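Attaching the record inline, Q. Sequence:
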Amino acid sequence: MESNQEDCNKFNSFMGIQPFSENLFSRKKLLCEIQQYFLQDVNNSALVLYGMSGVGKTLIAKKYCEISYNFYKNFVWIDASFGMLQTSLRRQCQILGIEVHDSKSDYFNVELIVEKIHNYHKNEKTLYIFDNVGDESAKNLSMYISRKPNSFMLITS
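Structure, as predicted:
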């Protein structure tokens, strides 16, 4: 598995992040590289973990959250698998107590939902994890990426 930088321009707990599995093989070097990448660029950094299915990208992202809890104020885990991205964003709004319906009880458009989530965390160091981004999700991923200061993105394929 390789890590790769891509030109993509929280909530004070681990809520929404599944517990870490101790079955993960030691990837200390990779975890250190991820940490160093985010430490050297403090504004709007994005890092993509990609590789074959089943090699542990999601587990590495979870472990990175676990070891970096002092670096970030918030962690926002977004399930970006096929058909789940918008549902996951709406769930984040519910967790944060952000309204996602208009006066007619219709969902706000996704751009407004994304903006509300980013504005909620705008003054805090936040790691957004987009997990399991596939071809369909990748096409429009830039619209979900925060441009706010102190926003960091970890993306798994």
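The chain has a mean pLDDT of 80. The helical segments are 28-40, 57-67, 85-96, 110-120, 135-139.

More tomorrow.
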